[in-house]
Amino acid sequence: MKKFGFFLFALVLSNISFGQDNVVKFEADVAHRNGDILFIKNNRIIVKEIKVEGDGHFSSSFEIKEGMYQLFDGAEYSELFLKNGFDLKLKMDAENFDESIVYSGKGAAENNYLAQKILSESKFDAESLFAAKTMEEFTAKITEKQKGDIAKLDAVKLDPNFVALQKKAMETEMFQMKMYFGEKLKQQKLNNTQAPSFDYENHAGGKTKLEDLKGKYVYIDVWATWCGPCRAEIPSLQKIEEKYHDKKIAFVSISVDEQKDYEKWKKFVVEKQLGGIQLYADKNWMSDFIKAFGINSIPRFILIDPTGKVVNADADRPSNPKLQEQLDALLK
Q1: Which residues have C-beta within 8 Å of that of residue 181, sequence separation ≥ 6?
Q2: Catalytic pick among 115, 230, 269, 290
Q3: Which domains can be identified in the chain, with CATH numbers?
Q4: The Thioredoxin domain covers which part of the protein (predicted)?
Q5: 234 catalytic, yes or no?
Q6: pTM (2 d.p.)
């Protein structure tokens, strides 16, 4: 949950800023550091590079617009609230990144709050939250969470502008999570309905229809060669395919690469030795099958039963152990 919460609202937080005079003084002592440079970032923009001066010691002074930033050590991120006049000192062990962050000096209260917030979010039971059956139930749960977060924020004496930024982020969080849950509800309505068919080009030759796989469970991976999270799932998918290769289940990967990347797709399948049934969607995102499932982000996984009915329109990823639990239960 911590990564989800951090990346979801970094843009909103960083775009609200306040100007002041003076400079920020920033020091850090980092054990087991991941690199020789600490980066202060505003999303993709590097605001400041701080080079190591000694055995894990970093130090710099610089002007900055007041607002939210990210500290990047070359491997992991943490949130920062910076304003001119702050004199921050950080101690951290990069091998235990989030858990070890401790700030002292002027500005420490706000940044220690952020560090603790990340730890708290990582322990939050998001799965229980999204297990709600209705939007009303979900809204009640997320509202309760927000009230608790605001109470924690108000319990500490913090910079008023920082508090305003955090409360704005909470409002954005609620709105975006409700939007996400609404999409989940739409997907759930497809479960236990007859799946739409497809008739796509098969990398091995010819074309393949969903009806060709009747009598087997069909686990579908909608992906593209340019999609990093899609590629990250490939090793797990290959292990799943190997485990169930002699079972009554077909593994189908449907590429939504655009026509300009058609040759790239063909080459990628060969180079990465992708298994299963490799298909190419005829009109990428506008293919009827893709639109029928409301797919607007990837990777997306779909599980269909031997009769062609949808078991799960938003199935677990190969990297999630729950997928194997479900497949084991279905294939008994």
Answers
A1: 130, 132, 135, 138
A2: 230
A3: 2-184 (no CATH), 199-330 (3.40.30.10)
A4: 189-332
A5: no
A6: 0.67
